[in-house]
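Data availability (excerpt). The following record was deposited with the supplementary files.
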Amino acid sequence: MLAIAPFFRFRNTIMQTETFSEFLDNHPFDSIWVGDGASLVRQVTNRDIQLFAAASGDVSPAHVDAIYARSSHFQGIIAHGMLGASLVSTVLGTRFPGPGTVYLGQTLKFAKPVHVGDTLTVSVKVLSRDEEQHRLRLETRCVNQDGVVVIEGEADVIAPTESLRIQRTELPEPLMADKNLRYDQLLEAAKRLPPIRMGVVHPCSREALEGALDAARLGLIEPVLIGPESRIRALAEECGFDLGAATVIDVPHSNAAAAQAVAMARNCQVQALMKGSLHSDELLAEVVNAQTGLRTGRRVSHVFVLDVPRYPKPLLITDAAINVAPDFDAKVDIVQNAIDLAHALGNPMPKVAILSAVETVTSKLRSAMDAAALSKMADRGQITGGLVDGPLAFDNAVSLAAAKTKGIQSRVAGEADILVVPDLEAGNMLAKQLEYLGDAQTAGIVMGARVPIVLTSRADSAHSRIASCAIAVLWLNHVHAKPV
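Predicted structure:
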């Protein structure tokens, strides 16, 4: 089994190896002599590199594309040379000589690359003084944690003539969301596995066909295109798509495509399904058919996998696409399906928050009563593999501050990996709000059937479709790795 624990890591934050004082003090020219200097120590994070790329516009793949960078001779993301050099300016402007310094010129030699996680010691030292113009020539050096010089040069500055003490300006914390981080992690993990044979049901729109072909091009799936062959080939020609080695199964219309796809899944001719341009109900009606469908002992449910910029880890939401008003027994399966998917994505003990409008158990809200019973079932081992707690309101499920304010004692509150919603309306609105107002990236699959099903929407991005295929690959790998 391939674990992808990095998918559940917390987001990078700016890391510094030293704290800064409240004030900036300078060194006037008359107090400075040859050999004097100062330094700072800074650890370079991926977030630093992304912020610098955003500010400078330098999005060279060596700095921002993890997959490309790993294949380069640097074998990973490297910092911009000028990011390291900018730290020289930090020393000169804030420490030595400090406020009032006029930066005139700089020579630079980039000796070695700076990688993510490197700790740089950035130092300046006076080489000569010009009494008449109050100018200083300084040696500048950046040395990594191994004592290797990565950047060196000389700076020319005009030093201040008066002592200054200025209060440090507090800058707002920039929100920097790497929309490709977890997408790349999913892709990297899935691409190390063999592609799965996926039946693409009625791919008769540009979005549906393109999503399948993109996933095939990335080595995630071997597409079996099920639909009117003449229409599929005409669409591919119109859009300039190369069907390549994709198998096309000719059926007359969308209903026949859904029936054929489900039959192929039952007969193990495909390992997974992807919804194309037909309506979800058409496909799901065939999937849940008691005689010819793909039902198992579990209730079928959908699990959204979201990467929310303001949340430090992936967030799973269920069920927001299939079960309109699930009863208690259905919710048991919905919870277990989500826990099982979290395991496949590398989280061995996900924290599951059963949502309601309030965090107190009350008979006035069915969702609160269901949540309390589901939590007790988990305590008794009737739901396994996760920490389950509820009822929890949305705020105290995802915010430690909110949970502490309300005095909630819980191993789940404020740190939920999975949000189980009361019904489809609440879940769909929550997922769409996070996507469109919270700038979340979304993916997800249908669980509980004999095969995973990628249930795409016409509004889904290419990233969402491909990430959903990657999740299906990882799920199948997880299932096949389980002992029988």
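Summary of structural features: The chain has two domains: 21-167, 182-350+417-481.
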